[in-house]
Amino acid sequence: MGLGTTVQARVGGYVIGDGQKLLLIAGPCVMESEAHALAHARKVKALAAKHGLPVVFKASFDKANRSSGKSYRGPGLEAGLAAFEAVKRETGLPCLTDVHETWQAEPAGKVVDVLQVPAFLCRQTDLVLACARAGKAVNVKKGQFLAPREMRHAVAKAREAGNENVFLTERGATFGYGNLVVDMRALVQMRALGVPVCMDATHSVQMPGSGGDTTGGDRQFVAPLARAAAAVGIDALFMEIHEDPAVAKSDGPNSLDFDMADRLLADVLAVRHALGQP
User: Fold this and answer.
1) What is the pLDDT of residue 214?
2) How far is CA 60 from CA 9, 65, 122, 172, in A?
3) 113-152 pLDDT, tens digit each
4) Which residues pair with 217 in a beta bridge?
5) Of 27, 86, 68, 82, whose CA–CA distance to 237 is shortest?
6) Which end of the chain is more exposed for a tag (fewer CB within 10 A), N or C?
7) In the 3-class helix/strand/coil scheme, how is the chain assigned residue by residue?
8) Rg of the chain in Å (alpha carbons)
9) Apex CA 24: angle with CA 23 and CA 27, to 5°?
10) Residues near 116 by beta carbon (within 8 Å), at least 6 away in sequence
11) CB burial string 219-232: b at 16+ within 10 A, e below
12) What count of other Cβ atoms lies within 10 Å of the Cβ of residue 169?
């Protein structure tokens, strides 16, 4: 996937990009409890070890962009960061979480290894700057409303704040009402900005508003999108995994269980190996 210059970034203690192994970013959508986070982190670690992949555990301490004000949002910043500390202490895994407010970036950055700017907020200059200044790697998700090349502005903001360890994530574009579509050209176009790219295979199959008071989804399309992205070329793969998606408190319809994720990773790595990628 080289474009004349080496495209790499340091993420959670790993180097991702040209010549590097695929980075797996995986975990439940929302943190349901510290015990829940620990149980899932252990399984995520075992899954990554089975496939020989570097891995970052992900979860959200607060889902501030829920469809309904009555939906579960998470344990909040203080309890969430305590849970991440437990995960790091007991599993050794680097962690990722999203932040929605500028004031959250500094305390979150003292605990987690990757700060994520949500897709809906990717144009919020102060938020991107706050995350970049926290000194950790920054994952900016491409807005569902933006052309891929427009993400150059988010990259520039992070770099102007002194942070070179930024990468971009594709998670689908709005297509009419209640649907998303993934244009695989976006992966190539965003990587041409000189940053590694990640495919969010589970959020890309969301169906916004289709669940009434919640966002729906169709997990049967996660695997085809992930395999296609691997064929195009990606540096990281983002997947939400829950031990029982039917009872997940957020994003159950588009989450995978661990058996599904295991099979999918085997397919993705087979595609990469066929293309001569590690």
Assistant:
1) 64
2) 23, 11, 17, 20
3) 999 999 999 999 999 999 999 999 999 999 999 999 999 9
4) 206
5) 27
6) C
7) CCCCCCCEEEECCEEEECCCCCEEEEECCECCCHHHHHHHHHHHHHHHHHHCCCEEEECECCCCCCCCCCCCCCCCHHHHHHHHHHHHHHHCCCEEEECCCHHHHHHHHCCCCEEEECHHHCCCHHHHHHHHHCCCEEEEECCCCCCHHHHHHHHHHHHHCCCCCEEEEECCEECCCCCEECCCHHHHHHHCCCCCEEEECCHHHEECCCCCCCCEECHHHHHHHHHHHHHHCCCEEEEEECCCHHHCCCCHHHCECHHHHHHHHHHHHHHHHHCCCC
8) 17
9) 150
10) 58, 96, 97, 98, 99, 131, 138, 139, 140, 141
11) beebbebbebbbeb
12) 27
Distance between CA atoms of residues 277 and 272, nearest Å? 5
**Token pair listed for 205:** 């199959």
How far apart, in whole angstroms, are the C-alpha atoms of residue 76 and residue 55?
Answer: 24
What does the alpha-carbon distance between residue 191 and residue 8 come to, in Å, rounded to a whole number? 10
- Is it the case that residue 235 has pLDDT exceeding 50? yes
Q: What is the predicted pLDDT for the residue at 126?
A: 98
Of 208, 212, 115, 210, nearest to 167 (Cα)? Answer: 115
Query: φ and ψ at 173, to 5 degrees?
Result: -120, 145
Decide if 74 contacts 60 (C-beta within 8 A).
yes
- Give the per-residue pLDDT at 69: 72
Distance CA 36, CA 130 (A): 29
Q: 0.85 cut: is pTM over it?
A: yes
